[in-house]
Amino acid sequence: MNAFARLLCATMVLLATSAWADVSRDDAAAAAQRMSKGRVLSVEKAEAARRPVWRVKVVTPQGEVRVMLIDAATGQPL
């Protein structure tokens, strides 16, 4: 691999990593818990509309299981 290709790959990895650095897994879980007033069951990385998101599964006080998407850059629900 030539120097340009290595630099391009390193830049792409750095950009992809920085998108996840804005909102942590714990922050996304806390935001979903506040909005749903429920209990968080799981949190995982995902992509929606070509944007990085946290996919948070919660169970509401009524017992309903919901999946909430939290924008990984802003912490806002989608």
CATH topology description: Nuclear Transport Factor 2, Chain: A
Domain tally: 1
Structural class: alpha+beta
Low-confidence stretches: none
Helix content: 25-40%
The proportion of residues in beta strands is 25-35%
For the record, the CATH class is Alpha Beta
CATH architecture: Roll
**How would a crystallographer describe the biggest sheet?**
3 strands, antiparallel
The total strand number stands at: 3
Main-sheet strand order equals 1-2-3
How widely separated are the two ends? 39 Å
Rg, rounded, reads: 16 Å
Task: Using the alpha-carbon principal axes, give the shape.
Answer: elongated
Average pLDDT number: 85
Query: Order of SSEs, N→C?
Result: HHEEE
What is the helix tally? Answer: 2
Give a quick set of tags describing it:
78 residues; alpha+beta; Nuclear Transport Factor 2, Chain: A; three-stranded antiparallel sheet; 33% strand; elongated
How would you describe this protein?
With 78 residues, this protein is α+β, with helices and mostly antiparallel strands. It has a single domain (3-71), classed as Roll (Nuclear Transport Factor 2, Chain: A), CATH 3.10.450. It has two helices and three strands. A three-stranded antiparallel beta sheet has the order 1-2-3, with helices on one face. The mean pLDDT is 85.
